[in-house]
Amino acid sequence: MSRFTTDRIAHCGASNGAVRATDASGLDARAAGPATRADAIRSGGLVRTAVIAFAAAAIGGCTLIPGTSGSLMREESSVPLPVTEGTDTVPANVKLKPITAELIIEQHQAKESRFRSGKAGGQTATRASDPKKIPGFDYQDYKLGPGDIINVIVWDHPEITIPAGSYRSAEQSGTLVAEDGTIFFPFAGVVKVAGLTTREVRQVLAKRMASVIENVQLDVRIVSFRSKRVYVVGEVAKPGLQPIDDIRMTLVEAINRAGNITEEADHGNVLLTRNGQTWRVDLQALYEEGDVSQNVLLQPGDIINVPDRQLNKVFVLGEVRNPGSFVMNKRRTTLAEALSDAGFVNQSTSDPAWVYVMRSDNGSAELFHLNARSPDALLLAERFPLLPRDVVYVDVAAIARWNRVVSNILPTSQMLQLTSETRYPLFGGRQ
């Protein structure tokens, strides 16, 4: 070794307190001076040890795993969720209810009780108010308006009722109410009828004709209610206005006149707007459970809106093959059907013992748990009905949780190891 090289090494040893040397195994080590740096040389090993210890600690809480986890619900019988109390939304503990045969029987009995009490049609959350409380409408109190057609029959005087002496339809033989609200009738002249009921019109005509016809007997009825309409919009074949005639129009009849509802219609959530107030009507309860209170008698100016079923979705998340949202068919979907639509649980990453159903109903929250490892799990899941906007969550298995922690930490540990083994020639080859 030359004198220049020896002096350079000695200078580095004096200034840094260490020299570079090679041991028998071929690994570099730094010869320490009075303040030895042997531990610093092994920084790469220490970093790896610290990372492994950190990963082991993280497994217990799993707080470092990206994504969702239901492990908190495993440890507590209730979890804090936002619920409505009066006008405020506050956190409250929601009890975790296991899905058992007793729970399914209890739900079925509650549904039967609602049907016997006249409140059929599924959960009460599907209706904003009882259709029985919708203000009624008496067709006898109907007041004539421009465009209406009335038919006046004078007994024993067919020449007045049918001047042409031949048969004509009711509308053709009727009398049209003019734009100014008047009609013309023989022996009575021009009569103001707008704003009058049929009984009042009969009295006016009888009084006018009494001077011409002795003991006049006549009848007045409405042939076409052209001045009064209802409007049917939304998921129907032919949306638009429907004129009211002399037959009392119900909700079902108005929808039938509009070509009936489409496949995308929400049967259980039909909206009826009357006098600025909106009511929810459940046609599915009428069709399937015979709740005739849902077939509301309409009045002029009513607006019927048949919404689509896009809001009738359930969400299946967590460790399933195809997570996502699924549209319910006529609000009928069971837990088993929802899991099947999502491809069922992922066998390699899921823990079937922890399947949750989260539900929000009128400001309150409910949380259900199913142990899908039990022999009767599939039978219970097939009998457990879901409601619109329910969330089904399948928790992750412990081994999958461990693998995710390791996969997230390994890139960092490898980077630290490469950094600790890097040589820096500009600084004398130091690491």
TrEMBL record:
It is a multi-pass membrane protein. InterPro entries: Poly_export, Poly_export_N, SLBB_dom, Wza_C. The keyword Aminoacyl-tRNA synthetase does not apply. It comes from the Bacteria. Residues 228-306, 313-394 form the SLBB domain. GO terms for cellular component: cell outer membrane; pore complex. Residues 140-222 form the Polysaccharide export protein N-terminal domain. GO terms for biological process: monoatomic ion transport. Its main location: membrane. Residues 399-422 form the Outer-membrane lipoprotein Wza C-terminal domain. Pfam families: Poly_export (PF02563), SLBB_2 (PF22461), Wza_C (PF18412). PANTHER family: POLYSACCHARIDE EXPORT PROTEIN GFCE-RELATED. Belongs to the BexD/CtrA/VexA family. This is Polysaccharide export protein.
